[in-house]
Amino acid sequence: MASGGPEIEQLIQLLARLPGLGPRSARRAVLHLIKKKDQLMIPLSAALDRAVLAVRSCEVCGNVDTQSPCSICADPRRGDAGMLIVVEDVADLWALERAGVGAVRYHVLGGVLSPLDGVGPDDLSIDMLIRRAPDYREIVLAVNATVEGQTTAHYITDRLVGSGAKVTRLAHGVPVGGELDYLDEGTLSQALKARTEI
Amino acid sequence: MASGGPEIEQLIQLLARLPGLGPRSARRAVLHLIKKKDQLMIPLSAALDRAVLAVRSCEVCGNVDTQSPCSICADPRRGDAGMLIVVEDVADLWALERAGVGAVRYHVLGGVLSPLDGVGPDDLSIDMLIRRAPDYREIVLAVNATVEGQTTAHYITDRLVGSGAKVTRLAHGVPVGGELDYLDEGTLSQALKARTEI
Ligand SMILES: [Zn+2]
Ligand SMILES: [Zn+2]
C-alpha cells in the first residue's frame, strides 16, 4: 500500500528521480522533510517555487542563471581577460568557478558529439561558439577526457581555424576517462594553469 | 562565487540538508531539475506545495498521513486483528507496511529512551500507548535491536503489565545492532511471523 496518502507518495516518486536518490533514500528524505516542516520543507517548497519562476538559460553562453545574459556574460571585467572556456555542461562551468579560475568567460556546448546517439554539430551550440570566438584571445577547450569529448574538441579546433584565437586544452592532470565535475578543485585549477596549445 | 544566482544557490543549500545528499549531489540534483524543468522541477514544486498543506501527524498513532486519524487507524478491519505494532519511527511503520505484515495497527513512539540525550518516557508517546493497549489482543514491540531500543522495550513491557494484552517482540532474525528500515522485506516479514512472547 501507499505510505501516507497520495500527496506523500507522489513526493517520494518525484524525489526518487533525482540523481543520487533512489526510492529508499527518497522516502527517508520525505520523512526528514516532514519532521523538519518549518525549518526545511516549507523553505524548500518556497525556494523551488522561486527557482521555477526565476531560472533561465543564458542566451549567450548557455549558463543557467536568473538573468540573461547571465551574471558572468554581463560582467565586463570577464571580457577583458580575453579567455573563453568551452565546457560540455553547466555542471563543468560551476566546477571551474568553484576552482576559482579567474576572470574568464564560458561557452556551454550542451553535450558532446556522439554519432551513435544521433548527436551532431547542430545539436550543440557550436555555431554560436564560432561567432563568439573572434572576441577572445584564447579559447580553452575544457571538455571531458572521454572519447566523445576529445572528438568534439578536434571538431571544434578545425572549425576555429582562422578565428584568430589561440585554441588550447586543459593540461593533462585531468585523469583519462574522468569527468571534470568529479575532480577536486586543486586539480582543476592546476590543469588550467598548465594548459597546452592544440 | 555563487553558482547561478541566489535562488539557485539557496535551492542547493536546502537540498544539501536532505539525508543522503551533500553539497555536490545537491548541485547535480538542482542542475537535473533545471534541465527537466517541465517534467520534474515544476511537478516537484507543486507536489511539495500540496504536501506542505496536506501532511499531518495522526493524533492516534503518530503516523504521517494527509488525514487524522490516519488511513490505518481509520480502517476498521485493521482493528479486528487485534495486533498493535509499536515502532520507534514512521520510517519503521512504512517498512513494515511494505513488508506486507497484514491487517495490523501501529503505534509510533517517536524515538527511544536515551537518558544520555535527555530523552525520558514523557518525551515519547508511551502514555498514549498504555491507553490504547486494552483495545488490543497483542502488542508487538518492533523497536530496533539497539541498546536504547531494548531498554525502551523493557520499560514498556513493565508499564503494560495488567493491560491484558500479550506483549511480544520481533523474532531474532533482525541483526543485532541493525535498524529496521534498512532490512529487506522478507527478513522483516519472517521476523514478525516468528515473534516471541516477552
Ligand atoms: Zn552567459
Ligand atoms: Zn494513525
TrEMBL record, chains A, B:
Protein name: Recombination protein RecR
GO biological process: DNA recombination; DNA repair
Family per similarity comment: Belongs to the RecR family.
Source organism per UniProt: Devosia limi DSM 17137
PROSITE patterns per UniProt: TOPRIM
SMART domains: TOPRIM
Keywords: DNA damage, DNA recombination, DNA repair, Metal-binding, Zinc, Zinc-finger
Domain Toprim: start-end pairs: 82-175
Domain of life: Bacteria
Function recorded in the entry: May play a role in DNA repair. It seems to be involved in an RecBC-independent recombinational process of DNA repair. It may act with RecF and RecO.
Gene3D superfamilies cross-referenced by the UniProt entry: 3.40.1360.10, 6.10.250.240, RecR Domain 1
Gene: recR
C4-type zinc finger locations on the chain: 58-73
PANTHER family: RECOMBINATION PROTEIN RECR (PTHR30446:SF0)
UniProt GO MF annotations: DNA binding; zinc ion binding
Pfam hit, one: Toprim_4
